[in-house]
Design brief:
The protein is α/β, with parallel strands linked by helices. It folds into 2 domains: about 170 residues, MOFRL domain (glycerate kinase, domain 1), CATH 3.40.1480; about 260 residues, Glycerate kinase, MOFRL-like N-terminal domain (Rossmann fold), CATH 3.40.50. The chain contains 16 helices and 15 strands. The radius of gyration is 23 Å and the shape is globular.
Length: about 450
């Protein structure tokens, strides 16, 4: 039996180009200013909110308020802030706080800017939280507050409830959580019991003020409370859920001493649910989602269809371990491409990676891509690629958003003197994909709508 000839490089190059084009199109389609125009508009000093699954159509006379505050934070903090301020009525001067990954090119003098850290908080993250709480605690019923919240906000706006916990210990707490293998919902549940700004506490800092939270959802829509660890939505988690997560992942013993002692003092197993969530703070609160991961994946679907692919969307492996997710998606991919040779399988959401020991340069998307490359290598004649990348433009601690793998990835890596198996063990995938020219590099996108996996077949 003769071995089928390998897929021509020109075919693989075309698939690489199509996968990149689908990802780029989806990014551009999820334009934040356009989303503002879709969800709200101003006529004079009246704000009109359009109907949505979370919100009834509403008209708010902003001239009835003496002060307007804006608290914007997360990876899209700058983009969302500028979109709102550019649309505010003339002479309506909002003051506020913005914590984003980078400093703005042009500062608004009534806004205090901070360069919050991600995935780990930094000193600016704590300073931003201090300033936001200070402003909110001065807010009364004649104050209207816009909360502009996007993914990454858990790290970019942070403050321990226990003032004795240092910045270094706060960073170590976050680092332990994100490398634990827990899902983002589980991680954020624990953060809510640690933080002075999460779990609804930003809203309860200004109970009398009228509040509107506009979210970029980097979590499943059924769990909006996980966006930036739910700073302005009622906290539906329980202390017992937090205790179970701490125990299951053996986190207490990995936390710094000050953090471990703090959680031990809480006695989570027998603690009652937080009664403050029943207060008046949320009687004056509205919420809406400007963009979600559904918008992102649907835009990718539309462009893939325009390129002639049969598109199937499967988001069922959200929050799975990267190995399980890869095995599941590739099994389905191979089954589907027998029926639809020109196939695009899309999967959105995030996978988890449990890091044991020192790590190199990379992130979950490049990790997923390299793991998938071992499966693709079993089909040297297969015209297939797998792209995995993050909508925020960052993958872990690397400069890439993600990477593309194909049936030749592992062979080409070895030709460059990389050991793909060892690279996975060392969590050091970015150098390998960079050497191959297969990283996806966008730079910070000013958006954050979770990750997208694109599996393409040309026959």
């Amino acid at each position: 039996m003769t071995t089928p000839p390998p897929t021509p490089q020109s075919t693989l190059d075309a698939l690489h180009a199509d996968a990149s084009a689908i990802f780029d199109y989806a990014l551009k389609a999820c334009d934040i200013p356009r989303a503002f125009d879709k969800h709200l508009r101003f006529e004079g000093k009246t704000l009109y909110l359009q109907a949505s699954p979370l919100l009834k159509p509403t008209a708010i006379a902003l001239d009835a308020y003496k002060r307007v505050l804006v608290i914007s934070f997360g990876k899209a903090g700058l983009t969302m802030l500028d979109a709102l301020l550019d649309r505010l009525p003339e002479k309506m001067h909002a003051r506020g706080v913005c914590s984003a990954p980078v400093a703005p090119k042009k500062r608004r003098w009534r806004i205090k800017y901070f360069e919050g850290g991600h995935p780990l908080p930094n000193e600016d993250s704590l300073d931003a939280a201090h300033e936001a709480l200070k402003m909110l605690k001065r807010a009364r019923k004649e104050t209207f507050v816009f909360f502009l919240i996007s993914g990454g906000g858990s790290a970019m706006l942070e403050l321990p409830l226990d003032e004795k916990i240092s910045l270094d210990d706060t960073i170590a707490f976050h680092e332990t959580l994100v490398s634990s293998g827990a899902t983002i919902t589980e991680i954020n549940t624990v953060r809510k019991y640690f933080s002075a700004v999460k779990g609804g506490r930003l809203a309860t800092a200004a109970p009398e003020a009228e509040k509107l939270s506009l979210l970029l959802a980097d979590v499943p829509l059924k769990d909006l409370g996980a966006v930036a660890s739910s700073p302005t939505l009622p906290d539906r988690s329980t202390p017992q859920e937090c205790a179970e997560i701490l125990n299951r992942f053996e986190l207490l013993e990995k936390f710094p001493q000050s953090v471990r002692e703090y959680f031990e003092r809480l006695h989570l197993e027998s603690a009652p649910a937080r009664s403050q969530q029943d207060g008046a703070a949320f009687e004056h609160a509205r919420f809406d989602t400007l963009l979600s991961n559904h918008d992102f994946v649907n835009a990718a679907r539309d462009h893939a269809q325009s390129l002639g692919y049969k598109v199937v969307i499967d988001n069922s492996c959200d929050d799975w371990d990267y190995r399980d997710a890869s095995q599941y998606l590739l099994k389905r991919f191979h089954e589907l491409r027998r029926e639809f040779p020109r196939l695009c399988l899309l999967s959105s959401g995030e996978v988890t990676v449990k890091i044991n020991g020192p790590k190199g340069c990379g992130g979950r998307n490049q990790h997923f891509a390299l793991y998938s490359a071992f499966d693709l290598a079993q089909y040297p004649d297969g015209a297939m690629v797998v792209l995995s990348a993050g909508s925020d433009g960052a993958d872990g601690n690397s400069p890439a958003a993600g990477a593309i793998a194909d049936p030749t990835t592992t062979e080409r890596a070895r030709a460059f003197r990389f050991d793909p198996e060892e690279t996975l063990k060392e969590f050091d995938t970015c150098p390998l994909f960079t050497a191959l020219g297969d990283t996806i590099v966008t730079g910070p996108t000013g958006n954050n709508l979770r990750d997208l996996r694109i599996l393409l077949s040309a026959g």
